[in-house]
Amino acid sequence: MPSTQFALKEKYRYLNGFNSYHESEAIDGALPIGANSPQKPPYGLYAEKLSGTAFTAPRHENQQSWLYRVLPSSAHAPYEARESATYNTNPENKPHEKIHHIPNQLRWDPFDMNETVDWVHSLHLVAGAGDPTMKTGIGIFIFAAGKDMDPHEAFYSADGDFLVVPQHGVLDIQTELGRLLVRPNEICVIPRGIRYRVMLPSGPVRGYILELYQGHFQLPELGPIGSNCLANARDFQAPVADFDEDTSTTWHVLSKFAGRLFSAKQSHTPFDVVAWHGLYYPYKYDLGRFNTIGSISYDHPDPSIFTVLTAQSDHPGTAVADFVIFPPRWLVAEDTFRPPWYHRNTMSEFMGLIHGQYDAKTGGGFQPAGASLHNVMSAHGPDAATHKKASNAELKPAKVGEGSMAFMFESCLMVGVTEWGLKKCRKVQEDYNAESWEGLEVRFKRPEGSKYGEW
After folding, report:
1. Which residue, 106, 241, 263, 348, could crosslink 26 as a Cys pair with Cβ 3.0–4.6 Å?
2. Where are the domains of the chain?
3. Tens digit of each residue's pLDDT (9 = 90 or more) over 98-137
4. Cross-strand partners of 81
5. pTM (2 d.p.)
6. Residue list for the binding site for homogentisate
7. Of 133, 125, 140, 119, whose CA–CA distance to 257 is shortest?
8. Which residues are part of a known binding site for Fe cation?
9. Any catalytic annotation for residue 121?
């Protein structure tokens, strides 16, 4: 079936469609008819515009939403720096820490769970490129949390859009525009600026985040594939309006701004949006619904055929960020080495494993909750054991990846590794090259009777 059978059943309703113009109201009649900002919105609500792009962005790129809420977002005390000595996810701003740009192939053991922290304090930047203050580049995070966020706190990132990939546990996310339940084998995207609170109904959580500092995610072009397949637009789910009414409790809104943490106090809940309409909203997607494309004749196609979401640079066809998955699929190619070929790539590739075993790395070193990074032009491909097995396998139709889901964050940028990712987490596998490729055997045999240059 083209969907995941989740252990925890869905409990919320959603609106369907990617980049669709949605409207939702928790109380009938809360949305004004025709006008966006009438003199007196229905029920005494305040109209507030949430802009994810410049007002003058081309229509096909423009992302704006109108919110109708009990009190506007501006009704808060000034923001103040919080935990400035310890909280900084933008290492280029630190005086004694830097991003390490190295050509080595890297692989990490599974990252540790941490039951002592909430969502906000679980974020660790592993790698990245660019600068959120210039709205350029990406950040790659690991999260591992064990506690709900404080019941009177909300969080948002002013730095970019969060693409969240859970690996363990369940995220129950209350956003300004409604609620999302996000489980392993689902992803969600929380756009820049949208406020939310994360609860953990099934205990500790762990996973990966790609923060996009520039632009927004889109579905990839399908070209000659046609109008369907890969991630279909109808399978993306946006929340329906769901609000709280609280104007007498002290709340704190936390902001990740240029990688640092700020906090503002206010006397009302930020989750008071009674109705909304527009194109700028959080959404989620079940990876089990991905319609995989592959070769039915010969050769292994480029991994771009597994792209779920993309964020293009100013050069068409070259992505600042691609989110790519490797789901269960049939391989039928004739006279073909079926795992991914050995390659060097102008793109940087950060891989993670949600569950199961990745078919191109069967030696056991690439594990769920672990990761790997193959940077610009760093050579990589199947490990020696996988190459030997695939070179001698019977080429009959075979399904690979059963019970598995690996993914890749790919970028045209040279990705640097943080001090935490390279040293402090203590998860880097020092024997990655030795285990994967140094044991490859020489198989070349000169034809009998031939000399160099003569045949």
Report:
1. 241
2. 290-436
3. 789 999 999 999 999 999 999 999 999 999 999 999 999 9
4. 262
5. 0.95
6. 358, 380
7. 133
8. 343, 349, 380
9. no
